[in-house]
Design a protein that fits this description.
The protein contains eight helices and seven strands, in the order E-H-E-H-E-H-E-H-H-H-E-H-E-H-E. By secondary structure, the protein is an alpha/beta fold. The protein has a domain of about 170 residues: Rossmann fold (3-Layer(aba) Sandwich), CATH 3.40.50.1820. Helix 1 links the parallel strand 1 and strand 2. Helix 2 packs across helix 3 and helix 4 packs across helix 6.
Length: about 260
């Protein structure tokens, strides 16, 4: 049976490692493809991106390099949920052989119910303000905060990613996709039922909301439950597919300049 590609998009200040537990839990019928934005992981030498439009263009380029054709799915966590929505919608309006069938929007409010994270330009915020905003969503590893150089590096990356999020809310919040939408969130996260329900305005297809025990970073502790949810929503899709990849056996964090 052919494997259905599942593109994984990370959160602000994060890397593809946030999906480690989920990747291990996914069934053989799902092929995880972890993409990272510049400034982290294998792309740590590249300058970070500051706008949602540039981030989506970068991800579209990365996806094209994977060799995926036909239908695929996206699991976007936090910032990745917004970028996943924008990427899915962009591909629907471009000629080609690739299209997102299902978008898993994780740990974020529906775009039309969202507000900018900062009153002004996030790129002008100092480290303390950036880290205070990050603390609202679970904060950073204490070991990073205690190391001055790592702390500064984390704040720099968060600042760039928060600028992407604010750019999305200010310019792309009305984006709508034809993909089936599965909204995922931890029961202890900060988002209200109304904020999650607002995702229904971002899809022309069916939308459902699934809650998992945990906070903003529920993915690690709830990997098995998330995997079952993903697999059940994609099972029918994978049965319909023809081969979509070029012999990859393992997932990878792809795309570098």
């Amino acid at each position: 049976m052919s494997r259905l590609p599942l593109v994984l998009l990370h959160h602000s200040g994060g890397t593809a490692q946030v999906f480690d537990e989920l990747v291990r839990a996914l069934p053989a019928s799902v092929e995880p493809i972890r993409l990272e934005l510049p400034g982290r992981g294998r792309r740590w030498r590249e300058a970070p991106i500051h706008t949602a439009a540039d981030a989506v263009s970068d991800l579209a380029e990365c996806l094209a390099k994977t060799g995926v054709t036909g239908e695929f799915a996206i699991f976007g966590h936090s910032m990745g949920a917004y970028l996943g929505l924008a990427l899915a919608a962009r591909l629907e309006h471009e000629p080609g052989q690739v299209q997102c069938s299902t978008l898993f929007a994780s740990a974020n409010a529906g775009p039309l119910h969202a507000q900018p994270l900062f009153d002004g330009d996030p790129l002008r915020a100092d480290d303390e303000e950036v880290l205070r905003v990050a603390a609202r969503f679970g904060g950073m590893d204490p070991q990073i905060l205690e190391h001055e150089q790592l702390r500064q590096r984390a704040a720099q990356l968060l600042r760039a990613d928060f600028a992407i999020c604010d750019s999305f809310v200010r310019t792309l919040r009305g984006t709508k996709t034809e993909s089936q939408l599965v909204v995922c969130c931890g029961t202890q996260d900060i988002f209200t039922d109304d904020q999650l329900d607002a995702w229904r305005l971002s899809s022309a297809a069916n939308t459902e909301i699934v809650r998992f025990s945990g906070d903003h970073f529920y993915l690690g502790s709830q990997a098995e439950a998330v995997s079952r949810t993903v697999a059940s929503r994609l099972r029918d899709k994978s049965a319909e597919l023809v081969p979509t990849t070029s012999g990859r056996k393992e997932d990878s964090s792809l795309c570098g300049k």
